[in-house]
Write a structure and sequence with these properties.
The protein has 3 domains: 8-152, no CATH class; 162-256, Rossmann fold; 263-343, Immunoglobulin-like. Helices cover 20% and strands 34% of the residues. It is built from 7 helices and 20 strands.
Length: 343
């Protein structure tokens, strides 16, 4: 066992949901990720679409049980002292696949915690020879740092993300469709004409406010004032176009609480001929262009879907996709960015 220490921390993260081009959807999940040596551990696992057991939408008792397990205060859920580090974002079944590892106290009598023998596991027991992550770990964490980070989750009332969105606009039919799409992927949404008279305790349940393009400035100011008086900080979204998947992507970006320096996709700009983006770790990136024609009809173009290496990349955009008012959505498994082609 290496004597070198790794630093241990935690940070908010999300599994990006969304309305897909084929009519399906992907569930939005907020969770707490493990930060090892200043970098999300998930990013070392190629382009894995998974979440940690510390998800914001599970019951408090189950959340606490997961924390207690990581602290070795409860029995390991799998044989051979193995714990789930990342699992399926759609369910908790081991048959869907999970990243597991042995978690144990150091055998040298110190207070250190060891994470070792990482593996991809779909059944019991884990097959390290066939499915082991041989390039990851072992990690040795100082006990005080490790317990302090996880212990804060048991007392931090803000650990659960506010996943409700207040929708304000003139086109009620469009807002109803948007609210239904958001609820489908796991984000609560309510429609209102204003926020005046809403109790502060209710305003605190919102993480974002989305305005339609036709909302008057006076209404926008009134809404902001209501949240300011309640001392609630929310993200404000100005809808780019009446296209449901595009608006969902904007709202997901607004709800992303992960530190910017720990995101996979950090930059997106788009023009008439190409999109430029930057990624921090190897991951699958999908680019979708939404164009609104002169009759306000939306058109969708799937223009890119590949695994990119860390760095800056330029992706050509077809001329028919960027004609008129068009918008590019870049998506990874963990975050979403949106840009107008005129930005």
């Amino acid at each position: 066992m290496s004597a070198e220490y790794a630093t241990f921390g935690l940070a908010p993260a999300m599994r990006a949901g969304g309305v897909l081009a084929n009519g399906g959807y992907q569930v939005h999940r907020d969770f707490v990720d493990f930060i090892v040596d200043g970098r999300p551990l998930l990013f070392q696992l190629s382009d894995l679409d998974a979440v940690s057991p510390l998800a914001a939408d599970i019951p408090p008792a189950i959340f606490t049980a997961h924390v207690r397990r990581l602290l070795l205060e409860a029995q390991a859920p799998l044989s051979e002292g193995r714990y789930v580090i990342y699992g399926c974002p759609e369910c908790e079944g081991l048959e869907c696949g999970a990243v597991t590892a042995v978690i144990e106290k150091s055998a040298d009598g110190s207070d250190d915690f060891i994470w070792r023998d990482f593996a991809w596991q779909t059944s019991e027991p884990a097959d390290l020879a066939l499915n082991g992550y041989h390039g990851i770990g072992p990690f040795r964490f100082r006990g005080d740092e490790y317990r302090s980070a996880l212990g804060q989750l048991l007392t931090d009332d803000e650990r659960r993300a506010r996943r409700r969105v207040l929708l304000i606009g003139a086109r009620v039919a469009l807002l109803a469709k948007l609210a239904a799409a958001l609820r489908t992927i796991g984000i609560g949404a309510e429609i209102a004409a204003d926020a005046a008279g809403v109790p502060p305790e209710e305003l605190r349940t919102y993480g974002a406010v989305a305005f339609g393009r036709a909302v008057p400035d006076a209404v926008r100011r009134s809404v902001r004032s209501a949240f300011d008086r309640a001392d609630v900080r929310v993200a404000y979204v100005d809808g780019l176009a009446p296209v449901i998947p595009l608006l969902v992507a904007q709202i997901e970006y607004a709800l992303d609480r992960s530190p910017r320096e720990q995101r996979r996709l950090t930059r997106l700009t788009a023009g008439a001929h190409s999109a430029e983006l930057e990624v921090t770790s190897a991951c699958r990136v999908r680019l979708t262009v939404y164009r609104v024609d002169r009759l306000s009809r939306p058109h969708l173009y799937e223009v890119f879907d590949e695994v990119l290496e860390p760095g800056s990349h330029r992706v050509p955009l077809p001329a028919k996709a960027t004609k008129g008012h068009s918008y590019v959505v870049a998506r990874t498994s963990t975050n979403v960015l949106v840009s107008s082609t005129s930005a």
